[in-house]
Specification:
13 helices; 6-stranded mixed beta sheet; disordered N terminus; transcription cis-regulatory region binding (chains A, B); 11 strands; homodimer; 5-stranded parallel beta sheet; 3 domains; 434 Repressor (Amino-terminal Domain); Rossmann fold; DNA-binding; transcription regulation (chains A, B); transcription (chains A, B); 352 residues; alpha/beta
DNA sequence: GAGGATTATGAAAACGTTTGCGGAACAGTG
DNA sequence: CACTGTTCCGCAAACGTTTTCATAATCCTC
């Protein structure tokens, strides 16, 4: 029977009144004393309910609740060897392309035992590696979004912690990717259909994987259709980067421009409008990303949309399943078709 | 002398060759063995150099380096009782007003021993408290940016961890604030000077501190100048929230509108432009925040600018100094004048 | 050169958990 | 009743640090 133990309840340790919880100071030992059991039993009651008597468990839980007991995470991490944190590093929080990605990852982990560390590299490679180093000590895994660090550096990081890559490939870590090809192909076909034969690519950061990717696919699609492609840039991948691009693209004598992303496309559009240049009359513009603002300008931006939400959840799920074998396995990567990009034709493209 | 110890160097423990670091597996004990000292000495060499012999220290450091030793943070946290993490909770990462704030805080802590946990509540109060609860266990302090949680809840949080508030006051925690008054006053004076006598306030979230604050000051400034103020909303504090606001403000028969923030102002502007309404000809618009996009629209937005960067650094510094007594004390709060807002007159305000 | 002050180091306790091992109580089986 | 198996629980070790305390070695001073 457990009756005697119940009887012992109020006898030893703390007074049994409904005292206010003592501000995160209650240890597992305090709970154990109050409940008249050993710390082991408390731990088991909390973590493996099937190992303790139902009545004992009820009592332990009640005592834990009364004391406002919260297990000390440092102690748990120490013995378990896991932090139950994951890190997320993105190039720029302020870039509206990454916001949905971040939200997707955070939303995914909100319902798990994991908390996420988010950091912003300010588009700077050195900061990126410093942040990665700092995070490694505190997390079980790292989601790297469009990382710029070198391959060898990436390998070093992956050697120390679980890594999943978004928008970047590597032999050393799993990655989730967008399939740029469909959207890019549609964009070039669209521009071609409108009669454009001389176009420009407004490049983003030279060491960016997506920049290379976009340039490559664009080159191929243009070549295939006999479109001449001029390379401009690189430009800062921001709105203001588009200002400079606008002036240079005008001077380049092309009739259409593909921007590295929506921000520079929007910057180009703004600058052109300010200079009194007609869009799409004198120049057609195609963006990349479909950030929220893209649909809100005048004219609204023709752009290539990405299923960022699917991408972020895929990244999070991949990480989760490598960290916690009990996690919903799901297909480690959704079928590529889910991550296909597609062209959104709006107002900034027109006949030459 | 220490010569004998040097001689002992390669004799015991690990082979002395430049082995590759063993993937974060090296403990302080391994370093101690390799260096031929006790773990205590290694700890001291790392944390309180003045307590160990210079030569010993050099040797320890070299061994630590060779093994790629990284102290285990969980163990440190456990004994020290501090995590050396701080949490930062904001309503919405995608809101361009918060991005600079976040970056400011992250930049501040980048050069300290602290790492920052960032989370986004999606403007949802319940999520906010859940995130706060989850973070409390993992951080030494929490920076709450424009929190919406109730006062009692806030007190409960502040009882468990150090808290600093941004854009919200409370008896239970220090806060850093923007002084809305100057900017607001300038805005009303500006609109009054242009001849407007019937204006509207496009409200933000009803439970938001800044919303109340703005409404109050606006009401006072308008009353003082004999301007009639209509209350519209609340609206979602986003671009799309402005769409609905635009239609309602047109129906309200006013000649000028103060938006809760730039996003809704921009939304209004966009919707109005789409409906063919002249801005500022038929309606003048004043925003709040001076987000980057505000200067890039056509016409550019008249808005009240905030020294967000100063605000975020003040918040971070306040937190830092309460956490680490050794931190640069600085004035706990910069003089209010530094945090004053001011009106930026651009293109969306004109004579009635 | 004896004594006290100073410096450098090691041993061990402590932080708060989890978990392997073993033992006690009890149930079932022959 | 003896034996085996099961259920429940406590003891103690372990995780990797930091820090107190004690001790040995060295230095200084008269």
């Amino acid at each position: 029977m457990t009756a005697d133990r119940i009887g012992a309840d109020g006898a030893d340790g703390e007074p049994a009144g409904p005292r206010a919880a003592d501000a995160s100071r209650a240890s597992i030992r305090a709970v154990a004393n109050l409940a008249g059991v050993s710390p082991s039993t408390v731990s088991r009651a909390l973590n493996s309910p099937e190992l303790v008597n139902a009545e004992t468990r009820r009592r332990v839980l009640e005592c834990a609740d009364r004391l406002g007991y919260q297990p000390n995470r440092a102690a748990q991490s120490l013995v378990l060897g896991r932090t139950r944190n994951v890190g997320l590093i993105v190039p720029d929080i302020a870039n509206p392309f990454y916001a949905p990605f971040i939200k997707g990852v955070e939303a995914y982990f909100r319902d798990t035992e994991f908390a996420v560390f988010l950091a912003d590299t300010d588009e700077d490679t050195a900061t990126e590696v410093r942040l990665a180093e700092a995070m490694i000590e505190r997390v079980d895994g790292l989601i790297l979004c469009a990382p710029r660090m070198s391959g060898t550096r990436l390998r070093a990081v992956a050697a120390k912690t679980a890594v999943v890559l978004a928008n970047r490939t590597s032999r050393n870590a799993p990655s989730v990717l967008l399939d740029f090809e469909p959207g890019m192909d549609q964009a070039v076909a669209h521009v071609h259909a409108l009669g454009h034969r001389r176009c420009a690519y407004l490049a983003g950061p030279a060491n960016s994987w997506s920049n290379k990717q976009r340039r490559r696919l664009l080159g191929a699609a243009c070549a295939e259709r006999g479109i001449e492609l001029a390379d401009l840039g690189p430009y800062e991948p921001r709105f203001t980067g588009g200002y400079r691009a606008a002036d240079e693209v005008l001077a380049a004598g092309v009739s259409a421009a593909f921007a590295y992303n929506d921000l520079v496309a929007l910057g180009v559009l703004s600058r052109l409008t300010a200079r009194g240049v007609q869009v799409p009359g004198e120049l057609s513009i195609v963006g990349f990303d479909d950030v929220p603002m893209a649909s809100m300008t005048n004219p609204p931006l023709t752009t290539v949309a990405m299923p960022v939400n699917a991408l972020s959840r895929a990244a999070a799920a991949t990480m989760h399943s490598t960290l916690d074998p009990g996690a919903p396995k799901a297909p480690p990567l959704p079928p590529v078709s889910e991550l296909a990009t597609r062209l959104l034709i709006r107002g900034t493209t027109g006949p030459v």
